[in-house]
Amino acid sequence: MNPWILILVFVVCTVAGYFIIKTVPSLLHTPLMSGMNALSGVTLVGAVTATGFALQNGSGVLAQIFGVLAIVLATVNVFGGFGVTHRMLQMFNKKKGDKQ
Q1: pLDDT tens profile 78-99
Q2: CA distances from 99 to 91, 92, 96 (A)
Q3: Among residues 50, 40, 21, 26, which one has the least CA distance to residue 81?
Q4: In this structure, are residues 43 and 77 in contact, taking their beta carbons and an 8 Å threshold?
Q5: Which long-range contacts does 37-40 make (Cβ < 8 Å, 24+ apart)?
Q6: Average pLDDT of the chain?
Q7: How many C-beta atoms surround the C-beta of residue 51 within 10 A?
Q8: Residue 6 has what pLDDT?
Q9: How far is the CA of 10 from the CAs of 15, 17, 47, 68, 92, in angstroms?
Q10: Which of 66, 73, 90, 99 is deepest in the core (most CB within 10 A)?
């Protein structure tokens, strides 16, 4: 596939995602983040699969380095997303001393 088409698809998806997230009310951000964390898990599985395929077929070192980098970044995205979601959900809990 032509790399320019891939870059164009990436740019269009980025702009569309920005405008979709911009229109979501702030009340729905926490459930939306939880759903996106689940999708990030799919990204992690894809990165592990692609890296394993590159290692098994003896692809170049550059492909293996990018695969490992993709695994690390996907892992950071998943754990960071769940950490932020957990912190946001704690903001909705009332403290025991508050009676309002």
Answers
A1: 888 888 888 878 887 777 666 5
A2: 16, 14, 8
A3: 40
A4: yes
A5: 37/78, 37/81, 37/82, 37/85, 40/74, 40/77, 40/78, 40/81
A6: 84
A7: 20
A8: 87
A9: 9, 10, 17, 21, 36
A10: 66
